[in-house]
Amino acid sequence: MCDLHDPSEHDHEIHAAGDGLSRRRIMQLLGAAGIATTAVAASADPAMAAASDEAAGLTAAGAAYTPPEGLAQDSPAKRTALGWIERNASRITGLNDEIWEHAELSLREWNSSIAQADFLRRAGFDIEFGTAGFPTAFTATYTRGKGGPAIGFSGEYDALPGLSQNKGVGEHDPKEYVHDPFAPSYGPGHGCGHCALGAAAAAAAAAVAEAARSHKLDVTVKFFGSTAEEQLIGKTYAVSRGVYDGLDAFLDWHPSTGNATGWGTSNAMTAVTFTFLGVAGHGGTPLGNKSALDAAVMMATMSEFLREESMASSARLHWVINNGGDIPNVTPEIAEISYYVREGSVERVQSLLEKVIAVSEAAATASRTSVRHRITSACWNQLPSKAFAELMYDNMRQIGPPKFSAEAQRLAKELQGSLGLPQSGLHDKIGELSPPNPVFLGGGSTDVADISWQVPTVSMGAALAPIGSKMHTWSTASCAGAAPAHAAVKAAAAYLAATAVDLLVKPELLRGVTEEFEKRRKDVAWKTALPDGYEPPMYEPPAWFLKRTGQSWPPENITWPPRRVISKEKFSSLGPALPPQT
């Protein structure tokens, strides 16, 4: 989710009660000028305005808010769905644990995608691999009756590099330690909890299908197994290819440190990699060499100066040098630095991105190297749904928080002790539903955002990680394969399934969600933020995977083999040779 929920790659600005900034505190932080600037930006930027309740005419400024009750209602179909989850709890948590063990990186989730697809196939879904050309993406479909509303669920299963951790261990203890006397590292791990995300969403989809089967409800349930969420690639590109067209509602969740839903927005984002090309040479005779690493370091340094005068409070700019050479006595001929550029809307991202590109060109000029850049992903800000969040919240409130065992709370407190946090354990309440902060202060991004402009979308978080901790950490990986995740997965599956069933048995709820959706987006013409001619990055699958999933290689939407990146630069001239020195 990944920049959502908590400070991870999937943060939907969801807060538990008391976690959000008060209106008075925001005024103190930004001053009246800050409020005015934000208001002007929202009115001038259609995408930001669509995410604003006031701009969308859904509330009056300063109006008191009380969440409505009675939206979520008991029904035989809902009892069937929740009963299916309870009866199949060991299978659901087993799917989580299986994907946790694989810990496969983005675009290479060979075993994890198959595990999730097999789970749904056994629940009566038809499976088709290769969604939008991605080998590890799949679409699972269950149709009952005349089709009825089309309800979508989102599944993910990619891990993060360097976050390997033994499950259920309260201190940093990598499961996979990569020994290198010059550069020790750790293997991948589920530090964002996507093993739980996909397992719970698959369980919810299966539970809704069971309810439809048992109570003769017309419905099409679609589950989208999505690759590379941590790179924000899978869904954004799939949306541009029409994969999510025809849905009536989309339900999303993400592991978090709290149990809450809301209707805040997220940051739009563009991911870009800059490649500098120079000339290699011996480090002991550096004259005339051209260091691509020097260029990358200069770019990193110069881009930091954008923060004072070129970045609003809603902006984020972060980078990593992902190729900087191999050994000090060889001048690096190629270096790459990757940036995530985030802002409140696609247009605001583009404005900041242009400044980052200018910095790269300045670094290349100063280092006498050449530079090129490629966009690896780009997504919109999320279009919220107040009505959908209110329905989700009512279901969460009625079902109650995850049922954490003493073992789960013990692990959480041990991890908090290791991280220097108060040992308060796991969040065992449902966070109050409250309006988004009146000033958008930025945060994470999500590729679910592009889906939210195509179909009404709700997002929620369920506690998997300890209070006060963060996603994208080894501590989350410890929880994701242990007791905390088992409780979170069952609770999240119940929240998702119950909310989806309400849409089926109470059509007026779906109509209300749809009406708000159309009202919010009426002045916005959505267009993918991916550049023209974009080809998504991919890895060639192993032969066994292609055979097992019935695919061939390569897909039609990429060039294979990819073009090689080779430096053709020449040594730098030092001018005429100097006469001998005496």
Uncertain stretches of 5 or more adjacent residues: 5-38
Average pLDDT value? 92
What is the molecular shape?
A: globular
- The secondary-structure element order is HHHHHEEEEEHEHEEEHHEEHEHHHEHHHH
Radius of gyration: 25 Å
**Sheet/helix structural class:** alpha+beta
Distance between the termini: 68 Å
Percent strand: 5-15%
Number of strands: 13
Largest sheet: 7 strands, mixed
Number of helices: 17
Residue share in helix: 25-40%
For the largest beta sheet, what order do the strands appear in spatially? Answer: 1-2-6-3-7-13-8
Helix and strand arrangement:
Layout: H1 23-44, H2 46-50, H3 76-87, H4 89-102, H5 110-122, E1 126-129, E2 138-144, E3 150-156, E4 177-178, E5 185-186, H6 194-215, E6 219-226, H7 234-240, E7 249-256, E8 260-261, E9 268-277, H8 292-304, H9 306-309, E10 316-323, E11 334-343, H10 346-367, E12 370-379, H11 386-399, H12 406-419, H13 448-452, E13 457-463, H14 474-480, H15 483-505, H16 507-521, H17 543-549
Helix pairs in contact: 3-6, 3-15, 4-5, 4-6, 4-15, 5-6, 6-15, 8-10, 11-15, 11-16, 15-16
What does the model show?
The chain has 582 residues and is an alpha+beta fold. 38% of the residues lie in helices and 15% in strands. It contains 17 helices and 13 strands. The chain has helices spanning 23-44, 46-50, 76-87, 89-102, 110-122, 194-215, 234-240, 292-304, 306-309, 346-367, 386-399, 406-419, 448-452, 474-480, 483-505, 507-521, 543-549, and strands at 126-129, 138-144, 150-156, 177-178, 185-186, 219-226, 249-256, 260-261, 268-277, 316-323, 334-343, 370-379, 457-463. The strands form 3 sheets. Strands 1-2-6-3-7-13-8 form a 7-stranded mixed sheet. A hairpin with a 6-residue loop joins strand 4 and strand 5 (185-186). Helix 3 crosses helix 6 (194-215).
